[in-house]
């Protein structure tokens, strides 16, 4: 069964961040030459590896038989800014330059982004039910109008391929993936190989790694709306309405900053004269 609307409580109760352990275990290790060495072991990393190894291999696939893998119902309204979580920064390669590592935060900052996160073709098709032009013409029209006005709205794709063989397949077919997208969108298509832990997935509602997820992210990289699997009735409309509200809020913030800038500048000049 999928969680009731508006969203899993876990997404609004605690921030999403990398957890680190400051106190490691100092143990003695004998090297090949027989000398005793001191090595620090992080108990948290050991626990995470054991937890990962203990997870059933087909668990996520078995969960997709219910509601096509839908893990929650998308909210009808966007999350409050002061209660929203930050989307984790993910580092990987892009279509623009596969040999160069890029971070998602550098692309998301100061923009309003509709972020599709998936692993595999099936999950990608699920995210397209929210954002593809044929599936959601109203959102497509909104993006066209915003682009003409030089606005902040953009689409970002995050393809998580932690299996090295699948990652190699993606790299092999990158030429075909480029042909399906505009050249200006190449820098917004990420292939992530590692760094996504189960704790991070759970914190932002990615309960099933085989399912696609769509996030509406504001200019401070905060998650303001989220959807999972195939778009259900009313969810595409909720995404469009949330995007419209963020565009309005972004415009208000920029207007306040524009009006406040001369006041701050004159105040600084007065202080310098003193």
Provide the fold topology.
Layout: H1 10-13, E1 25-30, E2 36-41, H2 43-54, H3 59-63, E3 91-94, E4 101-103, H4 104-108, E5 112-118, H5 121-131, H6 137-148, E6 153-160, H7 164-172, H8 174-179, E7 189-192, H9 198-203, E8 213-217, E9 223-228, H10 235-273
Parallel strand pairs: 5-6, 6-7
Antiparallel strand pairs: 1-2, 3-4, 3-7, 5-8, 8-9
Question: TL;DR of this structure?
Answer:
The chain is α+β, with helices and mostly antiparallel strands and 274 residues long. It has 10 helices and 9 strands.
CATH secondary-structure class: Alpha Beta
Strand runs, count: 9
- Strand percent estimate: 15-25%
**Mean pLDDT score, rounded?**
79
CATH architecture: 3-Layer(aba) Sandwich
The CATH H-level superfamily is: Glutaredoxin
Order of helices and strands: HEEHHEEHEHHEHHEHEEH
Q: How far is it from the N-terminal to the C-terminal residue, by CA? A: 68 Å
Account of the protein in words:
This protein has one domain: 3-Layer(aba) Sandwich (Glutaredoxin), CATH 3.40.30.10. The strands form 2 sheets. The chain has a 7-stranded mixed sheet with strand order 4-3-7-6-5-8-9. It has a two-stranded antiparallel sheet with strand order 1-2. The protein has helices at residues 10-13, 43-54, 59-63, 104-108, 121-131, 137-148, 164-172, 174-179, 198-203, 235-273; strands spanning 25-30, 36-41, 91-94, 101-103, 112-118, 153-160, 189-192, 213-217, 223-228. Strand 3 (91-94) and strand 4 form a beta hairpin. The chain is globular and about 65 Å long. The termini are far apart. The chain is an alpha+beta fold and 274 residues long.
